[in-house]
Design brief:
- With 286 residues, the protein is an alpha/beta fold.
- It has two domains: 3-63, no CATH class; 94-283, Rossmann fold, CATH 3.40.50.
- The protein is 48% helix and 20% strand.
- The protein contains 13 helices and nine strands.
- The chain has helices at 3-24, 26-32, 36-41, 49-60, 68-80, 82-90, 94-103, 105-115, 133-141, 155-164, 178-185, 203-215, 252-258; strands spanning 123-127, 147-152, 171-175, 190-195, 219-228, 240-242, 247-249, 262-271, 275-283.
- Strands 3-2-1-4-5-9-8 form a seven-stranded mixed sheet, sandwiched between helices.
- Strand 1 (123-127), helix 9 and strand 2 form a beta-alpha-beta unit.
- The longest helix has 22 residues, at 3-24.
- The radius of gyration is 20 Å and the shape is globular.
- It starts with a helix and ends with a strand.
Length: 286
């Protein structure tokens, strides 16, 4: 029996058991599927075997959404509410298990890029800061930068972060829409960082966001964002739907270049469930 055949049999057994459990435990099924984003991203380590089987079935039965405006609204509504804070708690271990081993290389490259710059960057802004661990980490990695701002839609999470990291005087956390904050407070000589955040922007809004940042002059942008593994930027230069949430797989090189940025780094790494992690280093045009 081939590995592929065994995998299909295991999947069929999991679906059958999951269906039975969803039927027998309707209250738990409703609880698990209360919010589709939480359902997709919940940490399976915190679930029992039965709950994992139920989740597997529920995720695969999620109704497909095709309307981009509806998707964007659902995503924004989620990240503003308390469910987002619960998700940040459930995924705290990702800082150690995913970010540190897989993503920090881009910041080593950023150090090299900064060493070749005559411009001094005095502020680093993380859009979608979540639980704040990455911003806190970056404040120790870039000691010459004296201001680190974490922006997030969740007021509750921002309040938690300000308390949790109160001893680090370089950090400040702000509850705001990213584009609104850039328009009111954005300045040049700033490094912007995102992780798994730009996937929630509609393509026109993301283009406007990049345009607005480039207008500040003397900015650098580090983007660590997911793409669908089937998204070929050459054959499909526009954004497309990705995943079960769903969110958007954007053509980041095109959008950055459209905004007037120069790319000094582009790479991709395969991740689980058929996705790709894209790493972008972009800077202002001299």
């Amino acid at each position: 029996m081939s590995i592929n055949t065994k995998s299909k049999i295991i999947q069929q057994i999991a679906r059958t058991l999951g269906d039975v459990l969803v039927f027998l435990r309707p209250k738990k099924a409703r609880e698990l599927s209360e919010n589709r984003i939480t359902l997709v991203h919940m940490n399976k380590k915190n679930l029992t075997t039965q709950e994992r089987l139920m989740r597997y079935v529920l995720v695969n039965k999620l109704e497909k959404i095709q309307d981009h405006e509806t998707i964007a609204k659902l995503n924004v509504d989620f990240w503003r509410n308390n469910k987002a804070t619960e998700l940040f708690v459930e995924t705290e271990d990702l800082f150690e298990t995913h970010f540190l081993p897989n993503c920090t290389f881009i910041f080593d490259l950023l150090k090299e890029e900064l060493s070749s710059q005559s411009v001094e960057f005095n502020t680093l802004v993380e859009i979608g800061t979540g639980n704040g661990y990455v911003l806190n980490y970056l404040s120790s990695e870039f000691p010459k930068i004296n201001r680190f701002v974490g922006i997030d839609l969740s007021e509750k999470q921002v309040e938690k972060n300000n308390k949790k990291f109160s001893s680090n005087k370089k950090l400040e956390f702000v509850a705001s829409d990213a584009l609104d904050w850039i328009k009111r407070h954005g300045q040049g000589n700033t490094i912007f960082v995102t992780r798994d955040v730009l996937e929630y922007f509609l393509e026109p809004n993301l283009q406007e966001f990049f345009n607005e940042i480039n207008r500040l002059n003397k900015t650098i942008f580090i983007a660590i964002e997911p793409n669908g593994s089937d998204h070929n930027f050459e054959t499909n230069p526009n954004s497309q739907l990705y995943g079960n949430e769903p969110s958007f797989s954007h053509n980041y090189p095109k959008l950055f270049k459209n905004a007037g940025f120069n790319l000094w780094h582009f790479s991709q790494k395969p991740v689980s469930k058929g996705g790709t992690q894209t790493f972008i280093g972009a800077k202002y045009s001299c």
